[in-house]
Amino acid sequence: MLGRIARIGASxxxxxxxxxxxxxKLAWKLFQLRQRRQDRINAxxxxxxxxxxxxxxxxxxxxxxxxxxxxxxxxYRPLWESNFHAGLRAIEAKVGGFEDFTFVDIxxxxxxxLLLASLYPFRRIVGIEYAEGLHAVAERNVAHxxxxxxxxxxxxxxxxxxxxxxxxxxxxxxxxxxxFDRETTxxxxxxxxxxxxxxxxxxxxxxxxxxxxxxxGAALNAPAPWHTIAQTRRRIVIGNAAAARxxxxxxxxxxxxxxxxxxxxxxxx
Length: 269
Ligand SMILES: C[S@@+](CC[C@H](N)C(=O)[O-])C[C@H]1O[C@@H](n2cnc3c(N)ncnc32)[C@H](O)[C@@H]1O
What we know:
Largest sheet: 7 strands, mixed
Structural class: alpha/beta
Shape: globular
Strand order of the largest sheet: 5-4-3-6-7-9-8
Order of helices and strands: HHEHEHEHEHEEHEEEH
Bound molecules: S-adenosylmethionine
Radius of gyration: 20 Å
Number of strands: 9
Strand content: 15-25%
Helix content: 40-55%
Number of helices: 8
């Protein structure tokens, strides 16, 4: 028996195909365990705030036709809180604070990320969501939400298609959490890039994937003249040249002299 197990083990080690299959299986199991833990964290958030954000919803049950639902990745589920905060903190540290930024959640579902973003000092927070049923829940969540550490009170959930969304003026951090299939992701990115090829105001687009950002393939390749600004296993940040400059300068805008002594780093939740 032990010999048989050893032979099977050895054949897996020798065969790259079998090894990749086993690694995939293991990664999927680990992901499911992590997702279960995140489900409990999401439910605890709702219990604490009296909101409705945790439960998954099939897009076809929220007013989206079957074809559009397929382009929109079929189901609503919220981004993991820890991943959201890690992404925002990474950008916040690089841009020197969010006070002049609008946060946009592209495919905002029930508005969970609008609520989490309101714990940062954004100028304004906007969500764009095409499922009427989810948008209605987001409106209720935004109206109901209150937290002692809330830093932004201007939260605007909008009903509409991300492919027609007009970026707000000024600096923007836009986030996409697994909202579209690859082709639609590429179209959504191109639509944003066309609106702000460059200009003075930075536009960052943060793509989040709770498994591996590489799943999106080439769809997140920054369309010229945009740049890939940062990449980790679960996150890709792209943006216009103004965003790349702001990232590289660590928050000091070219036209400004910032007195380090008077520029307190933004404190995050
Ligand atoms: C995975 S959910 C993420 C929800 C939200 N960002 C969060 O993390 O809580 C993706 C959302 O994108 C929405 N979506 C998909 N395609 C869209 C489109 N073309 N326009 C607007 N919203 C879209 C879906 O309805 C869904 O609510």
